[in-house]
Amino acid sequence: MKNRFNTVLLTLALLLPSLPALAMTWPQDITASEGTITVYQPQPESLEGNTLKSRAAFSIDLASGGDPIFGAMWFTARLDTDRDSDTAIIRDLVVDHVQWPDSKDAEEQRFTTVVEGAMPQAGFEISMERLTASLAAAETEAKSLQNLKNDPPKIVFRQDLAVLLPYDGKPRFSDIDNSPYERALNAPFAVIHKKRSDDYFLTSGDFWYAARDPLGPWTPDSNPPSDLVSMVPKPSGDDPKPASPPEIVTATEPTELVVTAGAPDWESLPNGQVLYVKNTETAWLRDLASGNMYLMLSGRWYRSKAEDGPWTFVPADELPAGFQDIPPASDIGGLRTSVAGTPEAEDAMRDQAIPQTAAIKRSDASLTVTYDGKPKFEKIKGTDVAYAVNTGAQVLEIDKRYYAVDNGVWYTSAEATGPWVVADSIPDDKIAEIPPSSPVYNTTYVHVYDSTPEVVYVGYTPGYMWSFPYYGVPVYGTGWYYPPYWGGAYYPRPPTWGFNVGYNPWTGWSFGLSWSNGFFNFGMSWGGGYPGPYRPWGCCGGWYGGGYHGGYHGGGNVIINTGDINIGNNINIGNRTNISNRIGNDTRLNNLSKQNNLYNRPENRARKADPAVVRRDLQNARPAQGKLNNVYADRSGAVTRPNGDQWQVREDGQWKDAADRVSPDTRDQVANAGQQARDRAAQATPEQRQQAQNSARQAQERATQAAQNRSAANRASGSYNLNTRDLNRDYSARQRGRSMERSRPMPRGGNFGGRRR
């Protein structure tokens, strides 16, 4: 530990000339009336919606010359995020409090006025990696959700190449115009039936299969009907195909397929406590101490003694201790994100709290909702909310008014059929009551933050994309099965199971169907266009963009899944057996990534307000030249920096050691004193309330005065109230964020659920 800080800082200084420009973004400078204000990387204290409360160390270089004057400030700001560029803008800063451990009392008011005047006009850019890591010290608590369903799906094992063909319930077919064929509506692949026969066909474009029943068994077919072959285009791309067609495994209930290349090949981790199967895409581990096997499916862990079960759910914070020791750079290093308590899992949990935001132009945002007949609504049990069942959109009825979510934006209307306008307020309390058992549960993660006559500020957190914090890790899907709507149209609902979902801290959630899923295209189409997108499977259509618009209405030509997200398209996996070799740069998985900004999709860009217009009054901060990002604001108001394994404080223009001067946090004492009095006021009778409120105000004033007196005494005596535990955590978070920022392009080592792009 000795000289830890000095060693790190010296190493950083030596590396500075070779680091990417992005790593040099902090500290940042803005121009003020009396000189230049240098703001060091903020230390967040809370994040609610897009409202960030933080503190930061800063310094002023006066135009008149002299040494820089250091201070600490607390501020409230708005956060604009863009996961496509992995950046956030901190804007609309309101300075709540300023402390000046490095100035004379007579100057403090003047300098405070300078800072308070400059900050609201400033905009600071920060990478999402730095923001996420810095939230480690924030006063936020990620809670596990209630009522997610964790019953395991049916788990099928195969030791040869195989593909899962999941039907959304019993197979249903519809005619292909001008042909003797019909095709399955509720399957992600091209399943075709020759009418008035028992002949069924399945194709990947390269391989053909035949069966006497849509549920199989499916056998390779080297001589499919020529008229049918002519309707189906060859897959695009030059990716190789396996020597023989993979087996087709059909399912009509929630199912996961676990495929190995031959018998499971168990490999030991260096800690000698955990084995893993290295010739599969599924996370399949064994704890040697207990002999239990563990599978990770859609971010959830299941345990069993044998392959044939029974499999039981295990919370991620109850996994064997050896799982925490999985080496980050190993073949399964990506699994650390799904092991509660690891730094990777904690980063992922903090990421769940950061919204993707946008400013939406009222004039350019529109919505059309199509129903299968007259709008039909179903009440959500235990709430005052009903949702439309016969549409691909997500439409809610609340207090005789209608609200719809489309690609992360709320709309409202007096009628279920419209006209729809962008909503600048929604009944949050009633929407929040929607339970996970409802297929519109994800709408509870879309928010309206603010509005002007021209724009509405909106945002969504990963729950809208069906990614939830659960027992210290992210999981995918609610676990509930949502039956589809069948009528004159077919509207599927979002699934949790059947798509081999895995998480990667760099790219988010990714999807497949099995080890050989690359040989089947979700995005296959044939026979020309179809009026309106057809989305035969919830995960592959527009659901994740805020609703599966369209649906199948019968008739017309065929387009199989032309949804917003085509999953599993042209994945080059082949017959390689080692996961670290098999999953590499040539694997192109479309994913519902945390970097996938719905607001930036081509079809959604027109409704976004130009950031340059929205932020036209902001004075963009610029990187401070020649200054290390090594100054911090302690909670007590001291300005600090690391020095060896100790901390120094700024006093009278000098840095002084502050070892062995740790006492309770004065700022927390101030807040607690006021809060206790306010709590007493809340419990008082109406007659006592005014008196209690006066007591609360007086207690707050006394605590504040005591803090100010103590601050003055600290400056005179050099005795600071440093909370070194928090400072050490802030230091570690800042270094971790910087490291994550530098390693953004590619994870260090493969992982099962975290397939690299």
* Beta-strand share of residues: 25-35%
How large is the radius of gyration?
29 Å
**Structural class, judged by helices and strands?**
alpha+beta
Q: Which stretches are poorly predicted, pLDDT < 50 over at least 5 residues?
A: 1-24, 514-519, 521-595, 660-671, 710-718, 746-757
Helix content: 10-25%
Give the count of helical stretches.
Answer: 11
Largest sheet: 9 strands, mixed
Terminal CA distance: 38 Å
Summed over residues and divided by their number, the pLDDT gives a mean of 77
Q: What is the molecular shape?
A: globular
Beta strand count = 45
Counted up, domains total: 4
Organism: Marinihelvus fidelis
Biased composition (Basic and acidic residues): 602-611, 652-668, 726-744
Protein name: Carbohydrate-binding family V/XII
Keywords: Signal
